[in-house]
Amino acid sequence: MTVTLADVAARARVSPATVSRVLNGNYPVAEATRERVLQAVDELDYVLNGPASSLAAATSDLVGILVNDIADPFFGIMAGAAQSAIGSTASGRAGGEKLAVVCNTGGSPERELMYLTLLQRQRAAAVVLTGGSYESPEHSAATAAKLARLAEAGTRVVLCGRPPVPGDGTAATLAFDNRSGARQLTEHLLSLGHRRIGYITGPDGYTTTRHRLEGHRAALAAAGLDDAPTVHGPYERAAGYEAARELLRRDPDLTAIVGASDTVALGACAALRDLGLSIPGDVSVTGFDDLPFAIDTAPSLTTVRLPLQEAGHRAGLLAMGTEDVPPGTVTTIGAELMVRGSTAAPRG
């Protein structure tokens, strides 16, 4: 006889909706209620809907890699490296191969939770979440609950390039030091003599945006300067283009523009050229991430290098369990300043 969700609800003395919330992890549930539901699930041997081949095992052969935008090289590099590492750990025919699936959230917190729910239902062997996370108490609580449920079911959880989720102690975390990298960039411009510096940052509400902006402002404060003009926008070339023009409308005497990503900086460079300004003669420009095109721009882009390939590879090994990092451990990955041709001392 097939056990239903209603059977679990009756055993736990709760509503079916409460059982669904506990199993999906989308909403916080009182700990005592959660434990009662999970005990009923164990006693009745209830399983979530999923592929029949996965029901006999604790986990399936599926690994989910969550990215904001697979077309963005920042995410594509990490996802590709993780997928390669996952494939390299297999021992041949029927030797532990995993199917790595890239889930594109489009930066939507709701879609991120949805993919985590789907991967839970599929009994994924591992989940890798890349890039910055959305900052809100509700989303953090829902994500922590979801990750805890995945871990309880035997799923390895890895955060790659993002800080730990508040309230979660289940994920192995590889966090980029975005604050330090941003501070190094601004300190470099200050050392060249720049004092009128515009900043193009990312969208509000995300950890990467906040941490990079905090590093930039810390460098300004240490130099005794007020906050520079700042424009928020997506990490896209078009946003960088419009933001650079907006910054120059606010302060035509800017001598430097800091882009919170290389893609944004690329758009800023295009805007400066269209305005008849030279780089770095009239305005210095910096990026962040050191994506492959950064060294090939004209002039080559001063930026901060994040080891995206290495971080993605390590995340794949952690997902497969071939590298031993205890759950809840946070490893901070440093950022390296790369000084190139797009920055110079201001004229005059």
UniProtKB/TrEMBL annotation:
Molecular function terms, GO-annotated: DNA binding
UniProt entry tagged with the keyword Zinc: no
Claim: Metal-binding is one of the keywords in the record: no
Residue span, HTH lacI-type domain: 3-57
Annotated keywords: DNA-binding, Transcription, Transcription regulation
UniProt xrefs under InterPro entries: HTH_LacI (IPR000843), LacI/GalR-like_sensor (IPR046335), Lambda_DNA-bd_dom_sf (IPR010982), Peripla_BP_I (IPR028082)
Top-rank lineage group of the source organism: Bacteria
Protein name as catalogued: LacI family DNA-binding transcriptional regulator
Species of origin: Streptomyces solicathayae
